[in-house]
Design brief:
The protein is an alpha+beta fold. The protein has a single domain, classed as 2-Layer Sandwich (Alpha-Beta Plaits), CATH 3.30.70.1290. The protein is built from 3 helices and 6 strands; from the N terminus they run E-E-E-H-E-E-H-E-H. The strands form 2 sheets. The protein has a 4-stranded antiparallel beta sheet, sandwiched between helices. Strand 4 and strand 5 form a beta hairpin. It is globular, with a radius of gyration of 15 Å. About 16% of the residues have low confidence.
């Protein structure tokens, strides 16, 4: 959102798509409970991660260790995109950081963009090629109802995969 301070405290719903929306991160079936959704006991679809999806999941979890002021509250890795709820706590620019230097990106000075850039770069380096679209989409969570709606969307996305706008 133009003019918004992406360094401010808040919760952000992030969508990151694969290049060309290729279905390379996971497979979705309608039986059992799968992996790829953190703490998701109520969902009935199964997400089976490919090795590329496992690389993405590894860096989603690992980047929490780099940032004292960011955490991934929840996520789902779909065949051609990832949804995350990213929590940003107060951000201060003073002192040394354990955070890897980001690559050039839109709003490159924001903690939000550094997280996304670093996530993509780490995945691409391990995989050996760029698998991500250059931009990501975000929604700023405005209140508890908005938060609950987006959390439910993460839980329910695998069950609705066949009708998802990102389904090919």
């Amino acid at each position: 959102m133009q003019g918004f301070d992406y360094n401010s405290e808040g919760i952000y719903f992030i969508t990151i798509c694969t290049n060309g929306r290729q279905c390379i991160l996971s497979e979705v079936s309608t039986t059992g409970v799968g992996t790829g959704v953190l703490d998701c006991p109520n969902h009935h679809s199964s997400v089976k991660l490919t090795w590329l999806g496992k690389v993405a999941e590894k860096y989603i979890k690992q980047l929490d260790d780099f940032y004292d002021n960011i955490s991934v509250e929840d996520y789902v890795i779909m065949p051609n995109h990832i949804h995350m709820l990213l929590v940003i706590k107060s951000y201060k620019f003073n002192g040394q950081s354990r955070t890897p230097v980001p690559t050039k990106c839109q709003n490159a000075n924001t903690i939000y963009s550094k997280f996304i850039s670093t996530f993509k770069r780490f995945c691409n380096k391990e995989i050996g090629e760029n698998i991500w679209q250059s931009r990501s989409n975000d929604h700023i969570i405005r209140n508890f109802d908005d938060y609950q709606r987006h959390l439910n969307y993460i839980y329910e996305n695998p069950m609705k995969w066949e009708n998802d706008e990102l389904h090919k």
